[in-house]
Design goal:
Length: 245
């Protein structure tokens, strides 16, 4: 079983270098594996599947073209694109996963998350997350006119960036106890997540068991990813090379 894991691309027209890197990635490394897992924040923001932008259409077309080659695509919503729904997923030929999602990779249990659920020290953000992830709230929000939704999202993004200036890096990082609880609840798997923009490999000892945690990198003009090669080893994860472009 071979798979690639990416997150926190924050695709938008204002970052053409990242867009070029993403499309090159889909044409290159992503075609060499059986599965691609996108663990949230594929887009800088997502106002709803009815927002038919040139960027959104280009991304869905590129993902669908990748799926045509035989790579299965899975998407787990992030804090920027939790409103991405089944309509876009069908166009992109990808499957939306819950957060967290426990998967099997060649007999190895792997737990996937965007990662924001683990930042429990940021109580204000967790309250906001519970609100906007509520299905009733999302249905009501998506019933608003698209222009109004975009205006609200812009306001929330501004508030978020302002709030970050007043928070310590420790508050915005994952809470170790939250990580260990999650690992215990799901049978001590390997955990892969993004969100914090702090790529690293950690080992947690939970109830006497050693559990690996891999934190994905955010994207800029490069294309960092994590690769799983089950054919070589039950657990063979590594940061891949950056494609040209």
């Amino acid at each position: 079983m071979s798979a690639l894991f990416i997150s926190d691309l924050h695709l938008c027209e204002q970052r053409p270098g990242t867009l070029r890197a993403f499309f090159a990635f889909l044409q290159g490394p992503a075609r060499s594996v059986q599965a691609l897992y996108i663990l949230g924040d594929l887009f800088e923001y997502w106002a709803g599947d009815d927002d038919a932008t040139l960027l959104g259409n280009a991304v869905s077309d590129a993902l669908a073209a990748l799926a045509e080659t035989g790579t299965s695509i899975f998407f787990l919503p992030g804090n920027r694109d939790f409103l991405l729904g089944e309509s876009f997923a069908r166009r992109a030929r990808m499957q939306i996963l819950p957060d967290p999602a426990l998967i099997d990779l060649g007999g190895e249990a792997v737990l996937l998350s965007h990662g924001d659920i683990l930042c429990t020290d940021d109580e204000h953000y967790q309250s906001f997350r519970r609100l906007v992830r509520d299905p009733a709230w999302q249905r009501a929000f998506l019933e608003r006119p698209l222009a109004q939704r975009k205006q609200v999202i812009e306001g929330l993004r501004f508030q978020s960036e302002t709030a970050k200036q007043e928070k310590t890096m420790e508050i915005m990082d994952v809470n170790a106890s939250a990580v260990e609880r999650l690992l215990c609840e799901h049978g001590y798997p390997t955990l892969i997540h993004g969100h914090t923009h702090r790529p690293a490999h950690h080992v947690h000892v939970v109830d006497g068991r050693s559990c690996e945690r891999w934190v994905l990198a955010d994207w800029h003009d490069d294309a960092p990813y994590l690769r799983w090669d089950g054919a070589n080893s039950p657990v063979a994860l590594r940061f891949g090379p950056k494609p040209d472009g």
